[in-house]
Structure formats: C-alpha cells, structure tokens
Amino acid sequence: MIGKFSLIPPSASTIAPQVDALFWFISAVTAFFSLLIAGLIVVFMVRYRRRRDDEVPQHEEHGSYALEIAWTIIPFAITMVMFFWGASIYASIKRPPDDALHINVVGKQWMWKAQHMEGKREINEIHVPVGRPVRLSIASEDVIHSFYVPAFRIKQDAVPGRINQAWFEATKPGEYHLFCAEYCGTIHSGMIGKIIVMEPAAFQQWLAGATPGAPVVPVAELGRQQFEQRGCVTCHSGKPGALAPALAGVFGSPVPLADGSTVTADESYLRESILNPHAKLVAGFGPIMPVYQGLLSEENVMQIIAYVKSLAAAGGGGHS
Length: 320
Ligand code: CUA
Description:
Blueprint (H helix, E strand, L loop, with lengths): L15 H32 L17 H30 L6 E8 L2 E6 L4 E3 L1 E5 L3 E8 L4 E5 L4 E5 L5 E6 L4 E7 L12 E6 L1 H9 L10 H11 L2 H4 L18 E3 L5 E3 L2 H9 L22 H13 L10
Parallel strand pairs: 1-5, 4-10
Antiparallel strand pairs: 1-2, 2-3, 5-8, 6-7, 6-9, 9-10, 11-12
Helix pairs in contact: 1-2, 4-7
The chain binds dinuclear copper ion.
C-alpha cells in the first residue's frame, strides 16, 4: 500500500464510499463549469474580437431575463444538492449508532493514548474489530490535536476542555494510518499511529490478552476506584439527605440546574461538573464540591465518567 501512488486513500469504512461519491460529484461539477467558462472565454475572445480599428458594435445588447434567471436557478439547485447531500453525510458521521463499541482516546504532545472499556490500553495504535461500529470519545491533555484516519474519512479535533465524539465502522481488515492533523508543536509530524482492523474473533482474543507489566482493569472499575479514593462517594452517596446529587442513571438524562435551566448529562457535562463543578450547579445543591481542575488527568476524568455511566438507574449513587 505504501510506496504505490494513489489519488485517494484506501477506502475502508462504511462512510468512505459516501464521502467519496460526494467528493467526486463536487469535483465533476467544478471541473465541468471551470472548463465551460474557460472554454467560452476563449471562444468569445476569438469570435467577437475587433477585426478593424474603426469597428463599432452593430447592435446593442440589453441583456436577457431568461438567461439571468437560468444561470441563477441552475447553480442554486446544484449547490443545494451539494448542501443537503453533504449535510446528510455529516449528520451520519456525527451520530454514532447506539450499539457501538466504545474507546477513550486522549491526545497529548505527542502521542495518542487509547483505552478500551475492558481496560486494555494502547499508545499510537488502536485495535478494532471489522464490521462493528466503534465510537471514540476524544479528549486532549494539552493543546488542540486532530484525530485523522484518511482511510475511514473521519477527522475530529481533540480539544482541551471538552470531550468530542467520532465513530466509524471498518469494512476491511488491515492497518490504516492515524495522523494528527492539527499543528500541535515541534513533534506534530511524529504524532502518528495506526488503526489495526481485525477479524472479530482475533479482536476478542487480542482484547482478552494480557498487557505486559500492567493488570487490565475495566475503565469503569478504574473510575470507581477514583471515585472512592478521592472521597466522591462521601457526598454522592445516593442516600436520602446526601450533600450531592445521586449519580445512578444520571448519564444521558436531563438534569435540572439551580438557575432554572436543564442540561442533558452527556460526557462533556459530566467532565465539566467534575473539573469545575460550580459552573452548572444542580438544583437543590450548594457549591460545596471541590474543584478538580488540574488534579485529574483526562484519562481519570474519562474513567470516572465510565463509572457514572455504569451505574444503573435503580441502585444508589455511590454503591461500593
Ligand atoms: Cu497533535 Cu499535531
């Protein structure tokens, strides 16, 4: 694959053929009109050139409504096709399927750190199964990076201060380039890795395999350990009269805030409420939670979020 020239990257995700079709459509329309206009300029230049020094126009042209309307409506219709086509592909790129496999990814100068929910960690490599949607929660430890896999036609910025989502479904086993596509410092160009797409059985085997030197602990369990070690469980006890809101079942549900508004408890909201809890106070609770900004790494935050997600709606907020 490397060394051979090709006009476009290999196509290895379900979204790739759709992106390519739109890309070729826009390219074809652009080429057609560029050639048409350039061609007409040359034809008119020759055909209507001044033949004698004293030549004057034989009749004056006052324009044509039919022509004006046609070259307004036709390009409008074509660009609307591009817009709605592009918007629909964008919408499907932005909406991960519910059954997607979930992987946390953190960009930092200058590497990509990934952790599977089962606990397996990787650096600059992400193993995924073929034929299964994979959702990535992408954060940054320092500056803006951009997670870019040309073969999958996905690119998502890793922005400090928030958790972004991306997803793909690989269609062919193999190894595919992973780039950082946002200049992030001196070794930006070295911030590269690969996505390794495996057959489902081989992937399961890989996932269950041991990591040298470190026990494989599920992400939600790591989050639970953080939750207890840092004393979160004292207030988020889930018991009546607790000093902090119960967390069971909170993920994905609406949360009433002290200022009267409501937010959906998604990953970005939970992240903010862990690091800067006073930004959006939950209705009925005082600003007593310590600020964890600077005390937790992005990985720790993602682990605590995974723990909160794992709490079923029925149980207490801080079961142990
Ligand atoms: Cu990270 Cu460029």
